[in-house]
Specification:
By secondary structure, the chain is an alpha+beta fold. The protein has 4 domains: about 5-125, N Utilization Substance Protein A, Chain:P, domain 4, CATH 3.30.1480; about 135-200, Nucleic acid-binding proteins (OB fold (Dihydrolipoamide Acetyltransferase, E2P), Beta Barrel), CATH 2.40.50; about 280-350, 2-Layer Sandwich (GMP Synthetase, Chain A, domain 3); about 355-410, DNA polymerase, domain 1 (Orthogonal Bundle), CATH 1.10.150. The chain contains 16 helices and 15 strands. The protein has a 5-stranded antiparallel sheet. Strands 1, 2, 3 and 4 form a 4-stranded mixed sheet that branches. Strand 8 and strand 9 form a beta hairpin. It is found in: Cytoplasm. Belongs to the NusA family. Its main location: cytoplasm.
Amino acid sequence: MSSNINLIDSFSEFKQFKNIDRPTMMSVLEDVFRSMLRRKYGTDENCDVILNTENGDLEIWRTRKVMEDGFSEDDALEVELAEAKLIDPDLEVGDDAIEQITLESFGRRAILAARQTLVSRIMELEKDDIYKKYKDRVGEIVVGEVYQVWKKEILVLDEEGNELLLPKTEQIPADFYKKGDSIRAVVAKVEMINNNPKIIISRTAPAFLQRLFELEVPEIFDGLISIKKIVREPGERAKVAVESFDDRIDPVGACVGMKGSRIHGIVRELRNENIDVINYTNNASLYITRALSPAKITTIKINEDKKHASVFLKPDQVSLAIGKGGHNIKLAGKLTGYEIDVFRDAEDEDEEDVDLEEFSDEIDSWVIDELKAIGCDSAKSVLALSVAELVKRTDLEEETIKEVLQVLRSEFE
């Protein structure tokens, strides 16, 4: 091969491969050319492939034993004297004939095939490198740019142009992105499909929230505060249990920051997701009480064997404990590992009474209006009257009144 031929220029595809270092590229080059030698001569064991890693120059030298004319048995390893004299007139029988193999001697078809093989090998290395790189980054935050938005997923490019996928299922419901937007997410899963790396990123995974806390709260990053567990209903609510390894540090206060300064950025990133930060404890009763925040619990009964907790609250706290869409009680259960049931506290009879409007899904509104017309605004005020008296004072049928009383009684049983 002519020493003037620079393979990096000859095989211009090299320029587009970002993640392959030069030594690896040169090693692949040598393999490809040795393969060409084997196809042409049957062996490459008597050939030296010399690579210049600085400028990409490559030389191939072939060594054969000089034999007497007519006594050569293997053209790949031996050369007759007459032919050897053409290489070097001073050669004699028994000498080593060393000749340089030129690129042109392989032929145009072989060169094109080698070029294709080279590109293919480098692309495989590129894909393998991306896979290994991201396999080691599972659970880490990545920042990319939205390249294309589809119905079921978003294509994101990282700073090196690698493709990342953000499926709809891994997006916060309030997320809205368009091409060119910057996006932060956590690497959730990396797999090889048909020899192509598939990198799935997520904004709904608990790990994403954990990494955001590590970025915003130095004490967590430094290991002074530990995040014990995170549970989320993406875009709605999250509960984070934290523990401090230094008695002088309030873990909840450190996570929230002065006037919410630290947690505010996290909430904004998560599209105004409500985040409850609670102090972790091994005391199950106290842990459940904290997990049901912001509701205030009156009493709690725990069955350790069944991992079940019965929680009693004042009537005005029940809806807080359950939360919008049941998110609060569901997350509290996931955080603590207990199945939690909420009950109205029966000790305070006055507070236990329930407004009739709360039964609107079971009792027709016109019936409720009829009862209100006689001064009965709550369940207990209706139950205090007999069936006969209710029939007398209202325009309701006896059967209707009995059905209403049954619904109201079941509330207090």
